[in-house]
Fold:
Amino acid sequence: MSMTHTQSRFNSTLTSQCQNCSLSALCLPIALADEDINRLDQIIERKKPLKKGEFLFRQGEAFDSVYAVRSGTLKTFNITSVGEEQITGFYCPSELVGLSGIDSNVYPVSAKALETTTVCEIPFSHLEELSSQIPSLKHQLFKVMSRKISDDQQMMVLLGKKNADEKVASFLLNLSNRFKKRGYSASSFRLSMSRGEIGNYLGLAVETVSRVITRFQKNELIHVDGKEIEIVDFHEMQKLVGVASDCGKIARI
Amino acid sequence: MSMTHTQSRFNSTLTSQCQNCSLSALCLPIALADEDINRLDQIIERKKPLKKGEFLFRQGEAFDSVYAVRSGTLKTFNITSVGEEQITGFYCPSELVGLSGIDSNVYPVSAKALETTTVCEIPFSHLEELSSQIPSLKHQLFKVMSRKISDDQQMMVLLGKKNADEKVASFLLNLSNRFKKRGYSASSFRLSMSRGEIGNYLGLAVETVSRVITRFQKNELIHVDGKEIEIVDFHEMQKLVGVASDCGKIARI
DNA sequence: GCTATTTGCTGACCCAGATCAAGAGTTACA
DNA sequence: TGTAACTCTTGATCTGGGTCAGCAAATAGC
Structure:
């Protein structure tokens, strides 16, 4: 905002600070006092950008950090016993990746960039230590993990009970919400993942994803141009997902 | 173990302590020093048993506690917009229920007893406070939540990618492991949930669950008598689930 | 620029598992 | 102790979405 020239000169991508990060209102610094943000800032390492297809970490590697996405998108996935990829999540800016490694001290999934992506590395031992000193940081961490648990459970419901239309509609509305939260358009956005990756994530064949998207377009629920998506009829999409009538609960994946 | 008469007189179900709890080695007290267990013990309330079908908490209620199961089994579930139940998890002794409420301060699921069940109530604000003072408790909490995240992600893989045989086999082996960890037989146990609940959880129709179980029995993988299950051929069951790294997909027996 | 490879779309066909139906046990409670 | 209400099983049938195949369009590599 009101940086001196000296500060701004130092704030290259790699040295930028949480205070100046447009994501701080969504990321871990939420609800932290200025001095606390500073302390958090000091344990964070800004990494150089990952190019599309590069790994952030690999399944089985020793866990030592969680990562906040700054720009771009990541996917996490397992390799099944049959050798095929199973995507377990997509991560957008401000979201935390790697939390599932805390328990076993090993990343149980791999994380790979879907496009050019920058992340902040947060060494977990430092974060844990700092969280003892800053209760609101600890609380924030518990909240982030709790949120991940309830989101994943919603995803389980989706995978277990919903049909192809509902799955794809949920997926698109979920992305829409995530874009909106970060101040981008909720109705127009670009998919950074391929149809194949969407299908893999949703438990559908590529062809099904393709057919459903085409049909949504034909029925004027959405407008599609390659990876560009515009949600035209939010109301109908939400009905498809089965949003509860009364309360304004938004479909979460 | 070596309690005085006075102590034992006070240690009814409702007043028993973490120190004397056979589950302490699996539950939160793991890796806590004796004096720390005492402090944890003081914030925990033992509740009177829930009868089968009673709620521990309901979706939408204010979140204030997590619960450790002491005996019996719970299920957690959502009610979908269509009004049907969607089970998101089963909870056995030593497991923690309610963690998904931390984020929103509201339980996003309901929890109901599948049989007579006793729990320890752990008011979360106290737990959080105590965790600031006892680093190993905080670490344990992070681990439990992280574990839940990776377990749920495994469940997502199961729901999205596996067929009926693989789902049922995974489910049975998963239960088996949980019994084993608590010192019970890994091969013989009693299902506290109905076929319908298993199907609901696994994204299968009741009829399919029933048929798969019958077929497993016919092929001498398991022996079934109502809710009593005996796993006869662990090796074949594990092959079915896909633990084997090398060999390809197992043909249906 | 030109080929090679990946990504997306669509049609034809098939099958795993859902749904429907019906009977036999089991459990609950009045 | 009887009966209503679940729960489980099994068979018959149907169908959503998977698989296979072929082609078009977009990207990457040379």
